[in-house]
Amino acid sequence: MLEKRRSRGEIQPFHALLLLLLLSVFPSGTTVPSFSPFWFISEPQDTLAVRGAPALLNCSAHIGGDAAAARVEWKKDGTFMTLASDERRKVLPDGSLLIGQVVHSKHNKPDEGTYQCVATIDLGSISSR
What we know:
The chain is mainly beta. 10% of the residues lie in helices and 29% in strands. The chain is built from one helix and nine strands; from the N terminus they run H-E-E-E-E-E-E-E-E-E. The protein has one helix at 13-25; strands at residues 38-42, 55-57, 60-63, 71-76, 79-80, 89-91, 97-99, 115-121, 124-127. The strands form three sheets. Strands 5-4-8-9 form a four-stranded antiparallel sheet, with no helix packed on it. The protein has a three-stranded antiparallel sheet with strand order 2-7-6, with no helix packed on it. Strands 1-3 form a two-stranded antiparallel ribbon. Mean pLDDT is 80; it is low at 1-7 and 11-22.
């Protein structure tokens, strides 16, 4: 079987396609965003809360380099929480979730569940365990 050898420096079809895709995403004169180290400093832990008392679920993320601060959001039972209109729950500046007064009764358990912290920067997101 005869093979055509490629000369050094010749662009292979796959590499040309990849180069064209990159050029269409990052036009001439733009810089490709660089990777910044990104990880959790603290994550929420299993917590036992007392009815009527506050509860704090810790979460904070570290971002290396010149990256802007991470945006922290919370999920409860797999669904993002809407906290803008919630008077009892709020995200603190470090990303932790404060529940001002835990509600728990025989038929009403709105604070019981599995919570997850999600931190996001321009290049992606990380989720707590």
